[in-house]
Design goal:
The complex is a heterodimer of chains A (about 140) and B (about 120). Chain A has 5 helices and 5 strands; from the N terminus they run βαβαβαβαβα. Chain A is an alpha/beta fold and about 140 residues long. Chain A is globular. The two termini of chain B are about 20 Å apart. Helix content of chain B is about 75%, strand content about 0%. Chain B contains 5 helices and no strands. The chains are: A alpha/beta (about 140), B mainly alpha (about 120). At the A-B interface, α1 of A face α1, α2 and α3 of B.
């Protein structure tokens, strides 16, 4: 797999984080970014927008990040989209748990908006390399 | 705007200024919730709302360059987490501490310089 990362779905209920992350990803990374404010909205939007990657907040009201991820995995149209969690509250053992339930990785808040796009691209490249290794 | 056109320092200053514009509203919410909890320590809804508000500041302030504010919010959140099993009991014995935490947050926010007007 050597696909290019172009479209990112950002799922985040905090308007401040939504603003800074989308500006960083669009202006700095050149990505096409669509934002959702809830897990339910993400479930409706993901099959339509067809993102290459989803950046998903962990703590959201009603449907949190892990519940949203589980629902995305149940839908054949979104099941294989890589998901990166975004969270301010994480213990080392939780990172392992998030990966176990299917997250590609975890980005901690606060993040550096100057390097967010680069960090996401690095995760994407690692993901592609890992898929290629599995195939060969 | 491409990568090379992006002026990091200018953007960081803009981000800080933008975030500071929203701080009065955040502090107004925090003050309302703290006042409510001092008067009614048993108000679980207010406690949960305070936790959410502090958590959001912890996560967002640092991304806008207000690192001290983010750190102060993280420390307050840790204290609130310790109260989670029984907030009313913890608040009943030390609710005035909430105002001290709020004041500390305010000091950290005020200590961050704003962008200078462009010449």
């Amino acid at each position: 797999m050597n696909a290019e990362l172009k479209r990112i779905l950002l799922v985040e209920d905090d308007p401040d984080i939504q603003f800074v992350a989308s500006v960083a990803l669009q202006n700095r990374g050149g990505f096409e970014v669509k934002t959702c404010t809830s897990g339910a909205e993400a479930l409706a939007e993901a099959p339509v927008f067809a993102p290459d990657l989803i950046l998903l907040d962990v703590m959201m009201p009603k449907m949190d990040g892990p519940a949203t991820l589980a629902a995305l995995r149940q839908d054949s149209r979104t099941a294989s989209i890589p998901v990166v969690f975004l969270t301010a509250k994480v213990q080392p053992h939780q990172v392992g748990r998030y990966k176990k339930i299917g997250a590609l990785d975890v980005i901690l808040k606060p993040f550096n908006p100057m390097t967010l796009a680069k960090d996401i691209r690095t995760l994407w490249d690692q993901h592609c390399a890992s898929l290629n290794n599995r195939e060969s | 705007m491409t990568d090379t056109e992006f002026d990091d320092a200018a953007w960081q200053m803009e981000l800080r200024t933008e975030y500071k514009k929203g701080l009065p509203k955040k502090f107004s919410t925090l003050t309302r919730l703290v006042t409510c909890l001092v008067e009614h320590p048993e108000d679980r809804e207010a406690f949960d709302a305070l936790c959410t508000c502090v958590h959001k500041i912890r996560g967002s302030a640092g991304s806008f360059g207000l690192d001290r504010l983010s750190q102060a919010a993280a420390e307050w959140e840790q204290q609130l987490d310790l109260m989670l099993p029984d907030p009313s009991m913890a608040l009943g014995t030390g609710s005035s501490n909430l105002f001290l935490q709020l004041e500390r947050l305010r000091e950290c926010a005020d200590a961050t310089p704003e962008a200078k007007p462009s010449e």
